Write the structure tokens for this entry.
Amino acid sequence: MGIELSLVAFVGGAVVSLATSWVLISRLERVGERFRLSEALLGLVAALAADTPEITTAVTALAHHQRAVGAGVVIGSNIFNLAALLGLGTVVAGRLRLHRKVVVLGGAVALWVAIVCLATVVGLVDSAVGLVLVLAVLVPYVVVLGAHHTVLPRLPLPHRWRTWIASAVNEEELELVIAIRPQRGSPRDVLVAAAALVVVIFASVTMERGASALGQHYVVAAVVVGGLVLAAVTSLPNAVAAVYLAAKGRGAAVLSTALNSNTLNVTAGLLIPAAVIGLARPSSQAVLIAGWFVGLTALTLVLAYADRGLRRWAGWLIIAGYAAFVAALLAAS
């Protein structure tokens, strides 16, 4: 692929992928509403749809044996999400108010996934084992979000625990019902969503191929192409949506978008394909990215819990953490 064609493929693929992802998100939300999904599950559906460019780009890179790019896209996107969704969102809003129960419930799952991601990348556990460890927590979490009114009473948990979980889910849904409740979908929305998904996948594959070719031409490290360039570009839909919600004061919706997006990225974009294809051997850059992901996730959750939300100074601190990550990754490459 020539340099001019590679540039056109990257820019054109990025524009088409990001523009079409908005159509995909809105239509899938309507389909979810048609099936009467809870607000929390609608949030997961929206996060998964917005993550389609990242996931497709990462899977494409892994399938072409560019495993440093694939892992970089997923984990780099997650670090960018923390900075752009929560950091920038807080700076724009001035303050994101959060219930501690919401922070603990969503944060525990997100931090566990980040830790398993690090363990998998450094080779402490096999990709398949890492996937099982993540699903062991993610599946019950999704079930509770989707049907906590009927599922929780049947769980063999102390009454106090069941009450606490129900309260945490309810507090999150109080904001999500305002933030994302769409109109009821129709069969036409299913067809439009399917068509949009095909376009997003094709455009994301084209974008990844173009970016990889440009990186090779200009001798840019694969982990930089994936962890910085593709990671930031593919995360833009989530970032724009989160800043909008933050400006409206929907702190729980912003937190849910960021954490759920990161969790789905790792699960669908890294662990599932890696369990089939495999990951590259651990490298210092990959360990750096995965370690930074865990550290910035933990820092963000500690700040959010301690202050019952995030203030502007905390938003700047998270953004500074991302800037330090960029500098460290470039220095290590």
Observations:
- The longest helix spans residues 3-34.
- The beta strands are 95-97, 309-311.
